[in-house]
Design a protein that fits this description.
2 domains, about 75% helix, single chain, about 240 residues
Amino acid sequence: MKQISTIFFRSLPNDEHLQFQTDVKALIDANKPSALRITNLYVVYDQAYTTEKVTIETVLANPLTKVIKEADTFRDMLEHGFYLFVESETMHFNPSHREAAGKIIHLLDQYGDLRDLNYSKKSSNILTRNDELRNTCMGDIETIGGTEWLNAIEAAAIDFNTKYNTRSMHEAGKSNHNVGAARIQIDSALDAIVKQINAVNWVNGVGEYDEFIDQMNHIIKHYKGLIVARKGRKKAEDTPTTPEK
């Protein structure tokens, strides 16, 4: 029997997470919660959706939010660019470049794709990793000509922290809108709905919800595509281990 696919919600930025839940809510509304036999579960989900919508829209209304997002995108771009640069050096015609790049790649892979980390942890982990690169692989970095890459990434990480902290101070005087908690709440509510529909469809064995499941999976596929596109070097089946914000 058909089943609703899984999606790692925390890989979605706040605006995409809200849009995803908006699309899902519209689909459920169109199919009617009563017809899907999730009326009680939907009440919880609907309340969680309202909470998330208010909290995220409040954050997005902050003029500094756009600045933060642009700084994060630039920081991620440099992270990805540096990895591709080092990776290309592993195929350099000069053996010393290939050897040096191999050592650097090994260390980079130990830290994993730092773009998966949330806002508050990403820069600190980048700076920690770069310190280790400088302490253990500086000669190799110089061999492949990667010093300017390190400097640029560190500058971007520090610049992000400055802007992020400015926004945090700006929001300190506002009502405490906990986006993280709101996201967890609605993700949990949706998970309960998904489990219910999957279970009924499996037990009944007659494909009662096949059409709804197809529509739901179409939405999920779209947002998974957005996640994969951002990963760049990561494959579609990779699973991140940390929340986005």
